[in-house]
Amino acid sequence: MNRTLVWFRRDLRIYDHEPLYRAARRGAVIPVFVFDRALLKHPETGAARVAFMVDCLRHLHQDLRHLGGRLILRSGNPVDVLPRLIRETQAEGIYSYTDCERIYGRVRDANLHRVLAAQQMKIRWFEPPASRSELMAYPRYRQWWYQEMAMPLVPAPSWVEVPAEVVSDELPDLEQLGHSLDDKPIPIGSTQAARRQLQQFLAEKADRYYWQLSYPSAEITTGLSPHIKFGVISVRECVQTIQRADDRGDRRIQRSYHQLISRLRWGNGFTQRFRYLPQLELRSLYKIFDDDGWDFDEDLYQAWQHGQTGFPMVDAAARCLQATGGYLSLNFRSRAIYSSFLSNLLGMDWRYGALHFMRHLIDGDCPIDHYQWAMQSGVTHCVDKTWTRIYNPQQVAVDRCDPEGLFIKHWVPELAHLPPEQLGTPPPTKGYPEPILDYRQTRSRRVQQLEQQREKFLHSDNVVPYLGRMPKNVMPFGVERYPSETDWAATEAPNLFPTALELDNLDAQQCSDLRTWFVAHGNIASPKKRKQKSSDSPDLQQLRLL
Ligand SMILES: Cc1cc2nc3c(=O)[nH]c(=O)nc-3n(C[C@H](O)[C@H](O)[C@H](O)COP(=O)(O)OP(=O)(O)OC[C@H]3O[C@@H](n4cnc5c(N)ncnc54)[C@H](O)[C@@H]3O)c2cc1C
C-alpha cells in the first residue's frame, strides 16, 4: 500500500485540505506535526498563541480519530525529523502546503528540499487557496481571489489509514515547549469552535458588524482570527458559509457580509505580498524609511507597552492587549490607534511595535501584523499622497470608537469616574500619568518627515528601484531582547522556498504590476473624498474611517 506523509503546519484541519485528501486517496497516511524549536523560540512567538496552537493540535488529532487515523507528533528540526520519518515509515514522500508567513519557514523549506533531493526522497507542495506563485497585478488578483473562493471545498477524506507501527510523541504541555501561561484566556482551537463562532456571528451580529466595527466594547467581529491564523478553518469555507447565509433581505446584513468577505481577502492579500517580498518581515517597503533611521527611547517604549502614556484610548488598548491577547476585544481600530501612536507620534521604528504585538496577540500573523504596522506608520501605500493616516488619540478617538467610554473605563479604571467627554484629555488624576507627548507637535513633525521622505520616489513612474531588497542577514528583529534559537539565520543570503521576486530582474510590465499592490484602490475612499461626503449620516461617516 502507498504511504504518504502529510506535513501539517498552519493548516490544522481535515476539511478543505487538499494534501490530506489526496494522500488518503493514494493509500496510508502519516499525518505529522513537528514542534520546531526555531519557531517556538522565535523572538516573535507568544505563549498564548502557542497554547492556542496546542489546543488546535489536540482537536486535529480528535478529528483524525473520527476518520480512523491519528496525529503523529515529533519534535526537532523538520529538516532532520522528516527524512528520518520517511525512512522509518517507508513512505514514498511528503505532501504539504507551501507557507509564506515567515522567512524562517522559507529557509527551512528550501533546506528540506535540498536534503530530500540528496536522498532521492520526494516532496509535493500544494498551493494554499488564495496563493499564487506568479506576479499578477492586484486588481487581477482580487478578481481571481473571488473565483478561487467559489471553487468547491475539498471534502474531508472518508478514511485515514495510519500504519499501526508509527508511534507519536505525547502532546506536550506549554512548559515542555519552553513557555508559561500569562493568564490570557485561551479560546478553544478547533474547526467546530470556528464554525460555531461564524454561525453565532451570522445569527447575532451581522446586522451590526459594519456599523459597529470601530467600537471595541461592542465585540462585534467574528473572532475567527486565531482560527484562520492556524488554518483550523479555511478562508474559503468562511467565505462560502457567509455567501450561503440568509441576509433576510436586510441591507445592513448585506453590507456586513460584503465587508467581512473583503476583510478576509485583505488578510490573504497580505500573505501574497509577503510571498512576493519576504523582506517585508524585516524591512519597510521603501528603503528610504529605514535608511533615515527611527527614534528609540526605552522609557517611552515601556510606557507605551504598559499603558502609561496619559492617552486613555492608547492605554486601554495597551492593557487590553497584554491581558487578553487581543482576542475579540482589541479590534482593528484600537490596534490601529495604538500602533500609530508608537510609530507616528513617538517616531519609533514600527518593528518594535510589531514585535510587541506578535508576542501578545493570540491571532498574531506575521504578514498581517507587520504589514498593518507598516501601513499605520505611513511607509507602505504612500505613492498616493493622501494616505497619511495619523490617528488623533484624544477626544476624537473616544467619540469615534468608545463614545460611552466603556472600553476605556474597563481597562483604565483610574478614570472610571470621568464622563466620556473628558476621557480624551482627562484632567490631572491621581495614579494616572500626564500625557507623554504633545499630539499637535508630534503629528506635524511626522507629517513633515513623511513628506520629505516620500518626495524621493513619489514622482517616479517606476518605484521598484526605491523598494527595500531582501537583506543578506536574515536574523529576526528582537533577538537582542529575547533569548531565541537563530542558528538557521547564520547563513548569509540563504535560499528561500518559495523564492522571492527578484526585484532587479523585473521587466516594465512586472514593475507596474507590482506597484498596484502598494497603492490605494478605487473602492477605498481617500480622506479628502470622505470629507466631501460629510453630509452623510454620522453612522456612515464613522464607518468610512475604518
Ligand atoms: C497594527 C495591526 C496589527 C494587526 N495584526 C493582526 C494579526 O497579527 N493577525 C490578524 O489576524 N489580524 C491583525 N490585524 C487586523 C485586525 O485587527 C484583526 O484581523 C481583527 O481584529 C481580528 O478579529 P476578528 O477575526 O474578530 O475580525 P473580523 O472583522 O471578524 O475579520 C475576520 C477576518 O478577516 C481578516 N481581517 C479583518 N480585518 C483585517 C485587516 N484590517 N487586515 C487584514 N485582515 C483582516 C482576518 O483574517 C480576520 O480574522 C492587525 C491590525 C492592525 C491595525
From TrEMBL:
MF-aspect GO terms: deoxyribodipyrimidine photo-lyase activity; DNA binding; FAD binding
Cofactor(s) the protein requires to work: FAD
Residue ranges constituting the Photolyase/cryptochrome alpha/beta domain according to the UniProt record: 2-131
SUPFAM superfamilies: Cryptochrome/photolyase FAD-binding domain, Cryptochrome/photolyase, N-terminal domain
Keyword set includes DNA repair: no
Cofactor notes: Binds 1 FAD per subunit.
Biological process per Gene Ontology, one example term: response to light stimulus
Site (Electron transfer via tryptophanyl radical): W294, W350, W373
Ranges where the record places region Disordered: 527-546
Pfam family, one: DNA_photolyase
Superkingdom of origin organism: Bacteria
Positions of FAD binding: Y209, T221, T222, G223, L224, S225, D363, G364, D365
Keywords of the record: FAD, Flavoprotein, Lyase
Name this polypeptide is given: Deoxyribodipyrimidine photo-lyase
Organism: Adonisia turfae CCMR0081
